[in-house]
Queue: 2 jobs
Job 1
Amino acid sequence: MKRPTVTIDGNEAAAHVAHRINEVCAIYPITPSSNMGEHADEWSARGQRNIWGTVPTVVEMQSEGGASGAVHGALQTGALTTTFTASQGLLLMIPNMFKIAGELTSTVFHVSARTVATHALSIFGDHSDVMATRSTGFGLWASGSIQEIMDFALISQAASLEARVPFVHFFDGFRSSHEVQKIEALTDDDMRAMIDDELVRAHRARAMTPDHPVLRGTAQNPDVFFQCRETINPFYLAAPGIVQRAMDRFAKIVGRQYHLFDYVGHPEAERVIVLMGTGAEVAHEAVEHMVKRGEKVGLIKVRLFRPFSVGAFVGALPKTTKIIGALDRTKEPGSAGEPLYQDIITALAETQLNGSAPRVVSGRYGLSSKEFTPAMVKSVFDNLAQSTPKNHFTVGIHEDVTNSSLEWDPTFDTEGEGVVRSMFYGLGADGTVGANKNSIKIIGETTDNFAQGYFVYDSKKAGSITVSHLRFGPNPIRSSYLINQANFIGCHQFVFLEKYDMLRNAVPGAVFLLNSPHPLEETWDKMPRRVQEQILEKRLKFYVIDAYEVAKATGMGARINTIMQTCFFAISGILPRDEAIAKIKDAIQKTYGAKGEEIVRKNFAAVDGTLANLHEVSLEGLTASSDIEMPPPVSPQAPAFVREVLGEIIAGRGDDIPVSRFPVDGTFPTATCRWEKRNIALEIPVWDPDVCIQCAKCSIVCPHAAIRLKIFDESALAGAPPTFRATDARGREFAGKKAALQVAPEDCTGCGVCVHICPAKNKQETRLKAINMAPQLPLREPERENWEFFLQIPDLPRSELKINTVKGSQLCQPLFEFSGACSGCGETPYVMLLTQLFGDRAIISNATGCSSIYGGNLPTTPYAQNSEGRGPTWSNSLFEDNAEFGMGFRLTLDKQAEHAAELIEALRAEIGDALADAILGADQSTEGGIAEQRGRVAQLRAKCESIGSPEAKNLASIADSLVKKSVWIVGGDGWAYDIGYGGLDHVLASGRDVNVLVLDTEVYSNTGGQCSKATPRGAVAKFAAAGRPAAKKDLGLMAMTYGNVYVAQVALGSNDAQTVKAFVEAEAWPGPSIIVAYCHCIAHGINMTTGLDTQRAAVQSGHWPLYRFNPALAHQGKSPLTLDSKAPSIPYRDYAYMQTRFKMLTKSKPERAKRLLEEASADAAARWRLYEHLAAMPVAPAQEESDA
Amino acid sequence: MPDLKTEYLGLSLKNPLVASSSPLTEDVGALRRMEDAGLAAVVLHSLFEEQISAERGTLEQDLAKGTESFAEALSYFPELDEYVLGGEEYLELIRAAKESVGIPIIGSLNGTTRGGWLDYAKMIEDAGADALELNIYRIPTDPNRSGADVEQGYVDLVKSVRGAIKIPLAIKLGLHFSSIPNMAKRLAEAGANGLVLFNRFYQPDIDLESLEVVSNLVPSTRQELRQRLHWIAVLCGRVEADLALTGGVRTSEDVIKAMMVGARVAMTTCGLLERGIGHATEVISGISAWMEENEYDSVQQMQGSMSQRSVADPASYERANYLKVLRTPHPEFPLA
């Protein structure tokens, strides 16, 4: 039977099957598995049925723990049930996995295997998560290619139903989960043939039902537990055989034959490596190449790792095997060896009775998606050929501490002839990846070629670069590694020429396509010399187009994707030109058709306008004459670690950094973003001192701390650069001083939020404000110098500032700057404000999410330090435990302060009463008080040193805890409302002095817009495609019920003064505090420049009332609740329909949109009435202290 | 009972009161209430050129914002199969209106350029509209563009729409033409079956606090009614098109005056917005009562009876009338 071919990624391949052969999916989003659940949800939303004719139910839970509980329950009541997860998510499922397996329940969990966070989080792939589930009783089943993912998703389910052993079906996260390949799609008939309905009915027959009641989940005692646990043995013994029979049945139906262990290579191989996942595909390519060259090497691909079939493994090994290399994609510190190695050793030891076993050595590769190439495979074989091969080696890194690593020859190339290898460097915003995904589909589905695409993204969210790797060829492509020998390189952004050495990947004679904004004849001279040299040395075919001009002429704006795609097809000749253009247009129609004809028409025009503007540049007579050099990634003035480690990462050479250069425990310096000059803004704000009223609103809303106000004595202007601007400071308290507003030209992202919020207008020309956007390039040099000068101007002493005002807060140095957040981010201004107010004594616990990514993703760190070297100290533990982690900080600080006080009392005689009393009785409620206490603690430390006793030394080591510290627990709504709510609730109830900042974007932003319980009614999000039907959870109100928790709801865009006040009050309240901050977000589908307008409208519409609930007021006999905004004054729709998340429902389900909008309006009105009532409630008379 | 029937754009209407294009006509429920209140026809709210172009162009842009840039968030919204874009929503309203009410439904398109949006004229016809009102007006701001050029643009637009549809076509005009009669004649020749006089433009205001230009809805005034009565009186019998009066109509007297100067229908919005849809019932019964009292048999009898061509002193609609007014002493504005 001819099956359709599809060009899809691994996540879709898994979901394609899982959705069709299950009835219930309970999931929770986690990278890189989220897409599987999202596909399933979209398909169910469209009414796509499973093979039994019913639409599977897809539910999003509050955590993976919750998802696995729901899966367990659904299985127990007889539904065919699955889930999709990875990494920490899989770990949260472990308790239920023990239960599910212990109860012999048939199910398959599809896992895009991802690194488990250790010294650092990583979203990339290895097997540390699945290996952590080895003892649960789940079988572990590995897929290597996209085709295998689809095939094994089906075979594993069929086998699980028969064996009653549940399986984790895993594949490599951020390799095969996201690699696009042309594969054969399994049909519903295939699935019906593989899944035995008798077994499905047997599964249902085992379900709990009051009609045939049973009891599961007993508690057992030592007398019987052990025996009961051993009852399952026959099932595990039978499972490998059942799996093999399912594989055999699949082969008969579909034609692809798999085995528990598949051998590839020389029939008389002496050196054999064993591995699983995509690494096995790479090894397959390398082994074939080496065998052709006459080497006796082989490979065993592990399909079913657990239950491990000793017999099948030994049977798969060639009898000639002398040495085995066991390659694990995980690390188990302190073990005798990684899991696969240990199982192989055991297997061979158990069969040694029958003869001598081959030697086995162990190696680790590919942690966190580290590249694993045929060259590395070869180095493993070379190691096996040594008389004393390295054991417990690593490959793919330079491990120069214990010298475990193998060297490899990067020029070793196994890719066959006829493979077109293309790389495209684009910006996220220019649509390059989308167009390349279309190109793969076009080629995959139009020609007989096999096709593969893989996409590398930035860890920055603003100005992010993407690199697309596309392969096409007549043979199946097993090259699950990045292209480094390209015969087509497209540079879609001219500025990349100075930043990335793209052409090092070009083979001689390759094509180089450049999008140049310069006239054709000037382009060559505008290129860096290194690029010119490579073009000439490698005799590249050089093509130039001004894609922006074509885009502008055809109304495409910054989207140059279809233009560059047309160029690729025109030059590469993969398809006849006319056919290619017709196919591109088909793809455009398919992609955009539903979203309106206008966008289709513009794309068509762009395609048609491309070829006339595409020019081949003759190299005749050209020389490498440019004086433009590629600048170093960071300033030569940067500290050595920044230059030698972080700078290398910035330059894209992180893979080359040896182990010895890294910290051993994941500790990195702060204040390093300042060295990474990204220069991504096309325009930056320029200050007009004559118009400026020095309100500092621009500064407080800047998401990147790139525009700052300083007030200083005139003397500080000595030596100012000629273009540095300053003016008389405004305000009585600053009389006689000067003021300057300065932009960091190379750190600004050009979002324009500051200009949008600026309230001061030029009286002659009202279109001009006190700051106005102007092109960055001409300003870069002078403003760089001005910025450097500005930085060295001393700040006013904090004790002289009214930090509870907008202007006062903005005269404090931001200790969070230049993060990689989205341009115009709605979260980061709050984080910056936190650091301005309390950063020099802040300790921050950060939930995983956007704020942990822009806060802590390498290479550089936005948390900064003041001139005294003080600044926020920051850590991310997990997603779910953030509140508890932060509370741990407070427990330490309180304990140490208590113990320090005890030691002071013990050493009072030596320390002296005056100092001891001053320290113990210090008032630290003001900036001045804190500064004085720091002075006293310094004296105390000096005293301790002179005392010299062990007690004094102990006191010195904890003396800093006597200076007030500010504990902040920061995270998004996904954490606070969903996965971390239980912990948050407990921490708020603890009475401890912690401050919680909830950056509420009302959606899971970091993982791509999944619905949370903060998502408002009527908003569209993933898992709420028809608009969220339920009202947003009122987190603030829930916190208020404790009575002793300070609660504030703020929106900077509506009332910045209230925001500042709330931060200051929250920090001052000596118990738990929570601030829920409205954050506009790119996931709302808004113009980020005007995001603050949506904040204002949120408040005006009653969606987001501003308030402060201060328990301190209750102690004074006043109402603790102060409403800081007015009753709703604009219709809810005026707020909602500023945003695509609401508006798109009116385009997809107009009637439902109308109903949900009415309900949401009613929610807002009801909430306001409730708050008004609460604020007006009479308060019990103030109680005497002694009553408390 | 006097006969209130009238003919407009070839449609037989039970009386001359028509609901003009306004936000009130966006909802099928409101359309039903209009029919119940006795309104003879409804002009739906306008589908704007900008709305069509923007929605066609920006939805994809809005949905694509930030996508394919960051590994963990390759998209931010679920992929939906179908979107009902601005234009389609409008067509759906026409279909629903035609199923729900028996009175004629007149679609309304608003724009000035020739482009893809004009396809909607045909789609409005296909959706079942009984006629189309094309609203063409834009403030000319380019000093190099002549009045003749602007006018020719309008004529060309009318021709292209006329060529695309078979249902009757009315053109809603602004009053800023050097020669309204000439413009009216040219539009009629280009294929307009009716002329709706006049369009109202929401003039911008200035917010002194924010120094921003703001626009808001200002209700029509009786002064505006007079302008319209004046020009319909002038055009009546001079152009081959049905005339409709819109702007400032609130009472039965206003409708009667409109009929007398030559309008086939009088359109109202502000009256309904201010006093509710039920007000239409009072207006219609008021017309009837006045006609009975003054012994008019039919609306058609009155139509044009006070047009420039029918009055005893045609100069009263020209400059002579202006002089007369100025020379009449007025207590509030003493000439001295």
Note: The first helix of chain B runs from residue 28 to 37.
Job 2
Amino acid sequence: MDIAIDTPTRTFIEVTEVWVPEGDRLVLAKGEYGTLSAFEEASRATSFAKGEGLPGKAWSEARPVVLKAFDGSYFKRTEAAAEAGLTSAVAIPVFDGAALMAVLVVLCGDDGERTGAIEVWAEKDGLLMLDDGYYGAAKHFEWVSQHTHFPRGQGLPGGVWAARTPILMRDLGSGYRFIRAESAGKAGLTTGLGLPIPTPSGTDYVLTLLSARGTPIARRFEIWDARAAKRGAKGGAVLADGICAREGALWDEDSPREARVWQGPIGQVLGTGLPVVETGAGIAAGYTSMVALPLYGADGLAHVVAWYL
Amino acid sequence: MTNWIDIGALEDIPQRGARVVKTARGCVAVFRTGEDEVHALDDRCPHKGGPLSEGIVHGGSVTCPLHNWVFDLNSGVAKGADEGQVATYAARVEDGRILLDATDLVARSAA
Amino acid sequence: MQKLVVIGAGMASGRALEHLIEADPTAYDITLFNAEPRGNYNRIMLSPVLSGEKSFEEIVTHDEDWYAVHGITTRFGEKVVSIDRDRKVVIGENGEVPYDKLVFGTGSSAFIIPCPGHDLPGVVAFRDLEDTTAMSEASATPGARAVVIGGGLLGLEAAAGLRLRGMEVTVLHLAGHLMERQLDPSAGYLLQKDLERRGITVLTEASTKEIYGNGKVEGVRLVDGTDLPADIVVMAVGIRPQVQLAKDSGLAVGRAIHVDAQMVTSDPDIYAVGECVEFEGNVFGLVAPLYDQAKVLAKTLLGQDDTFVVKQLSTKLKVTGCDLFSAGDFADGDTREDIVFRDPARGVYKRLVIEGDKLVGAVMYGDTADSNWFFGLIKDGADIAEMRDTLIFGPAFQGGAQADPLAAVAALPDDAEICGCNGVCKGDIVAAIKAGATDLGAVKATTKASASCGTCTGLVEQVLAVTLGDDFKMPAAQPMCGCTDLTHEDVRRLIKASELKSMPAVWQELGWKTKDGCHVCRPALNFYLLADWPLDYKDDLQSRFINERKHANIQKDGTFSVMPRMWGGITTPDELRAIADAADKYGVPTVKVTGGQRIDLLGVKGEDLPAIWKDLNDAGMVSGQAYSKGLRTVKTCVGTDHCRFGTQDSTGLGIKLEKALWGSWTPHKVKLAVSGCPRNCAEATCKDVGVICVDSGYQVGVAGAAGMDVKETERLADVKTEEEVLDYTRAFIQLYRENAKYLDRPYKWVAKVGLDWVKQQVVEDVANRQALVDRFELSQSIYRKDPWAEHVAREQPRYAPIANLVQEAAE
């Protein structure tokens, strides 16, 4: 756990974008495109009406949407994406009650070579069933997941659903530690982040990001607790859990890390209530980019989750 | 001088209930509250002699079953508009056993 | 260099070593024994390791490098066999180590209930990595089941972890609510609800009889007969300090190893720290005092002064998403005052216990934001006189954070049904109000809401208040008691609508202002709950008035009356002989024939009750329930069997009615009569239900009275057959059970709801009548039984004095 991985790794997610409503359209607020500048340009020139393209669809349907093939779909930037080698995308709407705050879009490529999973689980008949998911090369794990369902409290999705809080799980593949463990182990999945995604319809959705060692979604994960019921008048947020490929465990029972409003990227999320995508200086040492996503509960902003590369 | 006597296990008395200890001076009611505190009081309401051990225990009080006088279990003093007091005896729980200070209860009859 | 030997690499001894090395790395040559084959790890974080939310590597406090860097000789996986205090050597399995100073950090082991089967493979504690691994492996099989014995901190963390791993988990807890040492019933209720939402089954008052299995665990059987199949059983009922080695070495040991405030044992060169320590009668299980001890021990080892003091402790549960906090002392007391805050909508409960001008205890669930601030006030013994009124709102109180009682109604959607009888939705009522119906009468007239049974009256008024705001003056409804602002009708409605199935559920979800009610509300709630949820709710004897708790009528001198049932007023010579024998045997001063056609034995001593019942039971008699808010008697005349005027078998019908209804609890007492002809010898026309036999069948009358008020029955229906009489009567009684206010006799209740509504429910709506009968019979499947026999079998000890000091004095 003390291996410092500073060399750039091939990552599961290649592009991350934050779209925010402006009037009746979604416009690009921030994006991390790596070297894919042509796709970045195409994106900056685009905006989406409600129901239009992938971000617009996540807005109108008010739920997370997985899109695994762009050709012939409602995806608007197909040509630019194809040139950039991007093949799949997931859009996650961020609602505060009925109000759309933003849509986070992540795009992936090289399906045959990169392993990881981004899954959307939805409540159906009192169980959590796989709504859709993008798995890259982890085909067997995809099949297993399609044939799995989670009752309340069971496994990462069921745990997130029942506890109404994000959960970070370790060592997904180490034998017995995860309900889909055997297959997860074979696929090389190590760390899982599960997020409750509230929607105005009241249907419960859970998003999971399952990261593999070779092509990680992130090398550092953080869960910040910002609920008033936890923080009171202090505001800000406290680091509830986190792990880091460089620093190891980030939680400390005795002196937990705190984030204040407007201070650093997490503070930006607390202040604006919007997702943050950051690159370069100002983020945790040893990392080149980070995504921080706000999660809303019944009483407003409840948690912030962040992942770093 | 105290004379702690083990009178039984805490579980022998139901929560928010009471049991009686017979003594040479008459019956003493030992109460167990919802918080597992124990209190010992004379089992006789000063109003009409009702058995307090048969009353409903709520919070730190007991209501006499005969005419609804309410007594504080700590002090034995009647609450509200009623005036009166019943004698109390020291009692405590240790390792799940109820200990009653029987100094006043045993000594006299032995003498 | 002096030689220091430490036995046990736990959290306390580990922390002591850290302090020692930090202060003076060269003070000692250290050898560390540990029975576990590894060094010190953060044992209290095993539960997230179990759940998969942490990896074991993350909770290792001291790895091999740490011991190497600090020159500590480790003897891990090696047990200490004995200690020779004369030669000052520790004798391990692999040889001796001399010491100048010796530290016991032997910790504690799990307490295992010595029930049959406790040593079967598959029964584990939750103390170390091996236990955790065993539990994880058990969870690998799909559909595997776990039973956790013990609903304290450790047991619940184990349960949550196993559930997250995919197991079907049941928690067995002996006490009435979870974590009873740290939480009060209201917080325990919220915790249980939270765990149940995670799919964990919680059984309270569950006493384990045995663990069974052939060669390995297959299940757990409870004292009440419940059988729970299990692949693994986790025993988490408590810990027991590990003191055998210290005892064998001749150190002073009580419940644990005696130490002074410098952590010195009865041997000045031997110290002890952690869970194996007893200090001033206290033993320690939470981590905070262990760390305090570790600091003191390090100072003592360095020859510096420090003193260990016992401080207030706080508790948090490590289950992701469960927010609870408890600290200090929250027992009731004469000089103590409770401040209770409940926000049912957010699932928040807070209780502060104040003594004098100091905060002495705090329990919080769902909102723990200010827990550290409160804990500080408790620890420091701060004077809170100035802020007493607003204390519960925490340090940031800015006035006006009060929960709005109308918020729940305001939040209801328009299609929420307000009046179930007439199918009126909130939207209809709001529309009527906006159209000018601005008081209850007008709403009733225009929408028919609350025009039938009236139980929704309070709700309609709240809709008026929400819609009209300040323009509406809420009529002052009579609240149930000082514990709540809700009326009996509101409480009954909400118990049904919100499916509240326990007393703490009602207190919390309806925002009770007191901790556990009072003698006014508790008996009423107990009835409402058992009437509405016969299968789920367990009758609470401690919430019953004495007569119902002891199944006998208390007399003014504190003695009791005993009255066996005489079905329909019929008895036999054998029964009469048994009654006479009992009267003799127990010195019954008064024997009386009652107006209800049976025999009352008056003046029985409380402690004799089980014995006299047993005698009467043995003669075939059961309790006459002459003390209950339930069916009393069915009075009959002799009918066609003997009487020349009789038109039907009134005695036989009376017996059938009594056999159908006996044992049922009702809002107030219920008396019946069956007269064989309109001459009415059984006085059926002033009963709660009175049947008059006529040539063409039966006239069923209800709602009569012959007490403070005298009132003739009103005709419910005329029917042809005995079966119909039984159905109509059961349906009427069930309607009364489901709707009446506690302590309203049927005639009062019928006057409130109107006989027309009762007729519509019982007579006109055939399907509803059958549904009422079915619900009555469901309830009777639990309650149609003899309380005497039950109390003789199960509750007998409670009737005897717990102790007799008269004998003690004589010795």
Note: The first helix of chain B runs from residue 103 to 110.
